[in-house]
Specification:
Length: 293
């Protein structure tokens, strides 16, 4: 059982004790050493290595590690970046001044936000056969009838009033970011359209124009790996190449569709496909710090 046995107040931070150091382990600046109640290095390694996922035997219907099985979730710690907290506590224990401990964010800012958008579908009202199949699938769910009525009502209203498709939001997102001086990563799918994946091709004229416009404004275009691409290097390489042919720049960032991540197969496949930045490490059903940072 790897659950924390207790919590201690260490360096003005209440931290969980995952691993207790031996009695002779000391911490301090070398002048006034004192007993250390927690082994922060072992605890951080435990969280970052994702050992709980490597040996998991139960997954959800999409092959994902379930949030309910996470030690961070079960112990009510999922909203705390524990690895960052351990790092700050180590600095305090060593009595280092703020000037000698570089922060992770520019200009000593206390936090940073990385905006990103997964472009799954561009139209709520697509071609008739795809929309019909989607409605039939929705009927199999508990709230299927109400979902179908809502979609049909939206389609009728759009047809009568010439309303904008509710999924047509890329221009709105772009204007919103530019208004506040923000930039973001847009993750595009580069596979054949399907119910499980996207309703567009990255080579479509409209998509090409959006990608070019985003690039001109300083936004990043990344790959949104298809549903079956997690752990398949050849498929990721093919999709990355398709998107690169549109952007004319190397593709380095990726987020897997449905947040499908299987350690460590998915990351190995991404490395083989020359993708260096992954934004998949999160839970679909819970917000928080899956790896403690």
């Amino acid at each position: 059982n790897a659950s924390p046995r207790r919590r201690v107040d260490w360096q003005d931070t209440v931290v969980p004790v995952w691993f207790s150091p031996s009695d002779h382990d000391m911490c301090g600046n070398g002048i006034n050493p004192r007993p250390c109640p927690v082994d922060p290095i072992a605890a951080a390694f435990f969280l970052c290595s994702r050992v709980e996922e490597r040996f998991a035997s139960s997954f959800d219907r999409h092959g994902r590690f379930k949030a309910e099985d996470s030690w961070m979730v079960r112990n009510g710690l999922i909203e705390r970046p524990l690895v960052n907290e351990y790092a700050r506590a180590i600095a305090c224990a060593l009595q280092l001044s703020d000037k000698s401990v570089p922060g992770p964010w520019p200009d000593k800012r206390p936090f940073a936000i990385a905006f990103s958008h997964d472009i799954d579908r561009l139209r709520m009202h697509g071609v008739w056969w795809r929309e019909t199949l989607s409605l039939l699938r929705a009927l199999s769910r508990p709230d299927g009838w109400s979902t179908c009525k809502r979609r049909l009502h939206s389609r009728i209203q759009k047809h009568r009033q010439g309303m904008k498709d509710p999924y047509d939001t890329i221009d709105d997102l772009l204007r919103g970011h530019l208004a506040f001086g923000f930039r973001a990563t847009f993750f595009w799918m580069a596979c054949k359209p399907s119910l499980r994946n996207s309703d567009y091709r990255c080579s479509d004229p409209d998509v090409r124009r959006w990608i070019a416009r985003l690039q001109e404004q300083g936004f990043e275009n990344g790959l949104h790996g298809s549903y079956r691409s997690a752990g398949r290097a050849a498929l990721l390489s093919e999709q990355s190449r398709r998107l690169k042919n549109i952007t004319a720049t190397p593709i380095r960032s990726i987020r897997q569709h449905y947040l499908r991540l299987r350690l460590a197969d998915t990351w190995h496949a991404q490395v083989e496909a020359d993708l260096s930045v992954d934004a998949t490490l999160g839970f679909a059903e819970r917000l928080g710090f899956r790896a403690g940072l």
